[in-house]
Amino acid sequence: MNERTTGEASLKASTALIDILIIVAVSAVGYFTETWAREAGLITLGEDSRGFIAVLAGAAAALLMVMARGQRFSEIGFRRPKRWWTVPFWVVGIVFASISIQLLVSTMLAPFFDQPEVDLSRYAHIYQNLPAALFMAMILPLTASIPEEIIYRGFLINRLTHIFGAGFIGVVLTVVVQSLIFGAVHFEWGLGGMIMTSIMGLVWASAYLLCGRNLWIVIIAHSTAHILLVVQLYTTPLP
Prior knowledge:
72% of the residues lie in helices and 0% in strands.
């Protein structure tokens, strides 16, 4: 690698890191602003919506950053699937893999220590509450599935690839780091929730790469997983 190529790679890596830090800062400001607004009585939405400003602000900033760097949205995954008929198979496969791997990890770790429960207490009102369940099922794609996939799969994987490289080791590091970040931002679900969402981040990031970095496929899978969660919350009381 000559000096010019090394310089360009370094510039891409440093720029990518700056972009990531900007998104982190914007998301943090959004979270603390929402917290302040709730305490001041300016936001009266239920606890189940907590964090929506942070994720929406982060996604908007990510899209603006893509445009500012002269990229097209297709470069982070907003492109039509090559074969529409394969999309349902991808979605079912991603959701099945996510559930199966979580169960497998739980089974493997169970003999060694008691795993912390996922804290979903703020969703307790969904149980046997059909209007609340329907509203949650409809709003989650807009406030979670779409913006989260923009940030963590589309934007973050794109930027981390510039930092770690496009080789095998670089891809592994990219997938692992974004999954840990994805898990960390779900801290309000407790340690169990952070572990669960980290596993989901691993599966969805791998699926995103395997399906040719098509963001729509992963968004649909993410939304499907949310609908299954709502069904679970509606039919099963929380402990």
